[in-house]
Specification:
InterPro entries: NTP_transf_5
Shape: globular
Strand content: 5-15%
Structural class: alpha/beta
Number of strands: 7
Radius of gyration: 22 Å
Helix content: 55-70%
Pfam family, one: NTP_transf_5
Protein name: Nucleotidyltransferase family protein
C-alpha cells in the first residue's frame, strides 16, 4: 500500500465504527489523493465526517473541502430518496403477493454509524424464479423499464430513481459451480426485518454473510472488488458476531468450497480494517503473505466495481477468455485468443460465425475493424497495452487459482 491507501484505510477503520482518530499525522496527507482514492471505492462519504473535523485543525484546500462536502450532501439526498422509493417497491410487492428478499446494501447500510453515507448505486432484490414475471409486472407498473439482463438477474431503470437489479439467483453458476446447494436452501433461511416502517424478508445471518463472500468471489472472477465490500463484511461481523452460528457458516462455506477464500478475505479485513478474525477462520496457507500482498493491490486497483481504468477492463476481458479455456496461463496464447476468439466466445454481433463456421476469419476482421475504428479508437489503446496488461492478468489468474476459485 502507498501512503494514500494507508491513510484511507486508517480513516475507514475509524469511520465504520463511529470513532475519532488519534494516531494520524494530518499535516503530511495529500487530501486530494485521499479523496480520489475514496471516490474510486465509493467510500468518500463514509470518511467525510472525519475529514471535515480534521479540516478545522489543518490547512486543507477550501476548493476540495467544498467539493467533498457537496458530493457527500448530494449522495445523502440520493440515498435517502432511494430508501423511500424502495419502501414503495416493497409495499407494491407485498400487495401483489410477490415474495421478495432484500439483499446487500439495503440491509447492510443500517449497520453503519451514518447509514446515509453508505452509498448504493442500485438496489438488489431476490425473487423465486416462478415469480420473475410477476415481479417484472410490479416494477413496470411503478415506472421502471427493463434495461438489460444476464443469466441470473435483470436490471430495471427509472427516470427519477436508482435502478433495481432483480435476481432469481444469487450468482452465476458458470463462475461458481459449487453454490447451487447453498442457493437451494436460501428460501428456508430467512429473517424478517423492519425496513424503515415496512416489513421485509432478508437472508438469515449466516446466509447473509455467506452471500457477501459469494458476491466477492463472483466479482473476483468477473472484474474485481474494492474496499467497500470489505467494510460491509467488517460492520456485519462486528454487529452480529455473537448471534452468528459460525459452525453453520463453516459448513456452508465448505459445501461451496469457499473456505480458503473466506479465511483470506477475513485476514485481509484484519490487515486493513483491524477485524478480529473469528477463530474458525484463523488459518495460515502456504505462500499466504505473497498472495495477500497481491490481493491487497488487486483490491485497491479494482475500485468499487473492478472497472477503475481501461487496463483493468481489458484485463477482465482477457482473463475471461483464459478462465473459459481451462488450460495453463500462457501470455502468447492468451493474447492470441483475445484477438482471435473462437466463434462461441464472440459477441452476438458476430453470431453468424457460429452458424457458418467458415465465416470465422471474416468475423475476426469485422471485429477488429469495429473495435479499433468504429469504437472511438478506445480498443486501439488496449491493443498496444496487451503485453503489459497480460502481466496484470497473470497476477489475477494466479490469485484466482490460489484461492481455489
Amino acid at each position: 500500500m502507498n501512503s494514500t491507501q494507508k491513510t484511507l484505510v486508517t480513516l475507514l477503520s475509524a469511520a465504520i465504527r463511529g470513532k475519532d482518530i488519534d494516531k494520524l499525522d494530518i499535516h503530511d496527507i495529500n487530501w486530494r489523493e485521499v479523496y480520489e482514492e475514496a471516490k474510486a471505492h465509493e467510500v468518500y462519504a463514509l470518511i467525510y465526517p472525519l475529514f471535515k473535523k480534521m479540516s478545522k485543525t489543518c490547512n486543507i484546500d477550501s476548493i476540495l473541502l467544498t467539493e467533498w462536502s457537496k458530493d457527500t450532501i448530494i449522495n445523502s439526498i440520493v440515498q435517502t430518496q432511494h430508501i423511500n422509493q424502495m419502501k414503495n417497491v416493497f409495499k407494491a410487492f407485498e400487495e401483489d403477493g410477490v415474495p421478495v428478499i432484500a439483499l446487500k446494501g439495503l440491509i447492510l447500510r443500517d449497520l453503519y454509524p451514518r447509514p446515509e453515507f453508505r452509498t448504493m448505486s442500485d438496489a438488489d432484490i431476490l425473487v423465486k424464479e416462478e415469480f420473475v414475471e410477476a415481479a417484472e409486472t410490479v416494477l413496470l407498473q411503478l415506472g421502471y423499464k427493463k434495461d438489460s439482463s444476464i443469466a441470473y438477474e435483470c436490471c430495471f431503470i427509472h427516470e427519477n430513481n436508482l435502478s433495481i437489479d432483480l435476481h432469481w439467483s444469487l450468482s452465476n453458476h458458470e463462475h461458481l459451480r459449487n453454490v447451487a446447494p447453498f442457493e437451494d436452501t436460501v428460501w428456508n433461511n430467512l429473517r424478517e426485518l423492519d425496513f424503515h416502517g415496512v416489513k421485509v424478508q432478508a437472508l438469515s445471518l449466516e446466509y447473509e454473510l455467506m452471500h457477501l463472500f459469494i458476491h466477492i468471489a463472483s466479482h473476483m472472477i468477473k472484474s474485481g472488488f474494492g474496499v467497500r465490500q470489505l467494510c460491509d463484511i467488517v460492520v456485519f461481523i462486528e454487529s452480529e458476531r455473537t448471534a452468528i452460528d459460525w459452525d453453520l457458516l463453516f459448513d456452508l462455506s465448505e459445501s461451496c468450497r469457499l473456505n480458503k477464500l473466506i479465511s483470506v478475505i477475513l485476514t485481509l479485513c484484519d490487515t486493513l480494517l483491524d477485524l478480529n478474525v473469528p477463530a474458525t477462520y484463523k488459518t495460515n496457507y502456504f505462500d499466504s503473505a505473497e498472495y495477500i500482498k497481491i490481493l491487497t493491490n488487486e483490491v485497491f486497483e479494482s475500485g468499487v466495481y473492478g472497472k477503475r481504468d481501461e487496463t483493468r477492463v481489458t484485463s477482465t476481458r482477457i482473463l475471461s477468455h483464459s478462465l473459459q479455456s481451462n488450460d495453463d496461463f500462457n501470455k502468447f496464447k492468451l493474447i492470441f485468443r483475445y484477438v482471435f476468439p473462437s466463434s462461441d466466445k464472440l459477441d452476438k454481433r458476430y453470431s453468424y460465425a457460429s452458424k457458418y463456421t467458415f465465416l470465422i476469419v471474416f468475423a475476426w476482421l469485422h471485429r477488429i475493424f469495429y473495435e479499433l475504428f468504429l469504437n472511438t479508437f478506445k480498443r486501439l489503446k488496449e491493443l498496444f497495452k496487451l503485453s503489459s496488461t497480460a502481466s496484470l492478468v497473470k497476477d489475477r489468474f494466479d490469485l484466482i487459482d490460489w484461492l481455489q476459485l
